[in-house]
Amino acid sequence: MSREGDVDESKRATLRRFAALGATSPLVGLAKESESDAPGALLGYVAATPGAHFSKIRDDLQLGTGETQHHLRRLEREGTVESREDGEYRRYFPADRFSEFEQVALGYLRRETPRGMVVALLRDPEASGTALAEQLGVSAPTVSKYASQLEDAGLISRERGYQLERPETLLLLLVQHADSFGPEAAELAADADDIVSYDP
C-alpha cells in the first residue's frame, strides 16, 4: 500500500474509533445523520477529551481545518457540543455536562504546568511555590505566572500560600478523565481514595 494509503487508513481507523465512542454518548440521538464518520468521531473525541482545543481535536482526528470547523459548528447548532474561548484557544465540551467552573478547570488541566501544579497541590496542600517548581522541573517565576492565572480563574487562592478552590471537584475531573491527561493524572487516580480524605 502506498504511504498516502497508509495515512488514509490511519485516518479512517481513528475516526471509526472515536465515532464508536460518540455512538455511546447520550447526546448521539441529537446529532443528525451524516455520510461522514467525522461528526460521530468529533462527538466521541469531545466526550473523551473535554476541554480539548480546536487544533488538538483537528490534529488528533487527522481532519482538515475546514472540515473540523464545519462539523463542530454543526454539532454546536444541534446542541450536542458547546465551546468557550480560553485566551487564544477555543475549547470544546459535551453540551450541558459541565458547569462554568468545571469548563474553566478543564481548560487549565489540559495545560501541562497548571495540571502539574493542581496534581501536586492535591497530593500536598501545603506545597510552596519553590517545592512546586522543583517537583515540576520549572522555574519559580513560571510557577508564579501560572499561579496568578489560576487565581484569576478562581481555581486557587493565594491568601495563605497556594490553596486549591473546590479541590474535590478538581480531583473528580482528573480522575474521571485520567486517560486523556498525562501519566501523573493516572497515578493520581490510582491514589484518589487516600487523597479524598485530606483536610486542607
Describe the structure.
With 200 residues, the chain is mainly alpha-helical. It contains 11 helices and 4 strands. Strands 1-2 form a two-stranded antiparallel ribbon. Strands 3-4 form a two-stranded antiparallel sheet. The longest helix is centred in the N-terminal third of the chain and has 21 residues, at 3-23. The termini are far apart.
Q: SS-based structural class? A: mainly alpha
Spatial ordering of strands, largest sheet: 1-2
Task: State Rg.
Answer: 19 Å
Q: Count of helices? A: 11
Strand composition percent = 5-15%
Order of helices and strands: HHHHEEHHHHEEHHH
* Shape descriptor: elongated
| Largest sheet descriptor | 2 strands, antiparallel
Termini Cα gap? 58 Å
Could you name the key traits of this structure?
200 residues, mainly alpha, 4 strands, elongated
Topology:
Layout: H1 3-23, H2 38-48, H3 54-60, H4 65-77, E1 81-86, E2 89-94, H5 100-109, H6 112-123, H7 129-136, H8 140-152, E3 156-157, E4 163-164, H9 167-176, H10 183-190, H11 192-196
Antiparallel strand pairs: 1-2, 3-4
Care to give the gist of this entry?
With 200 residues, this protein is mainly alpha-helical. The chain has 11 helices and 4 strands.
